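Sequence only, no structure available. Ideas?
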Amino acid sequence: MLNNKPKKILLVDDEKDVLVYLGNILRRAHFDVVTAESGQEAIEAARKSSPDLIILDILIPDISGTGVATILSEGESTKHIPIIFLTGMINKQEEALTKKQGAGSVAGSHRVLAKPVNKKELLAAIDKILFPEREHS
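Reply:
I predicted one. Tokens follow.
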């Protein structure tokens, strides 16, 4: 029997406009969306909601996105959750370089997307992680 339950994405950003914009994109793409605005909120939400994927800004209040990723990678119930870093700290050229190298030094094995990200690019990155069995061009 196929599981028709939507995949859950934890969206973490301290800018409400970004949460609303990206949340709307993800909901229209039929994802279940949970949001957090700080590092501590993100950790608690990840532990409580067990998302299939986390989209994580690097510059957030109280604990940086990289700090959140480190803490989650050490937790038994959260270490398996893939992370896409979404950040204004790099530009599109640097993003392309991290793809070519496999990952950025900040990101470890996680994917990095530069802000602003467009809908097609975001959904393609999510698709590759959550649905690896699909063919990607």
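Residues 7 and 31 are 5 Å apart (CA to CA).
Hope that gets you unstuck.
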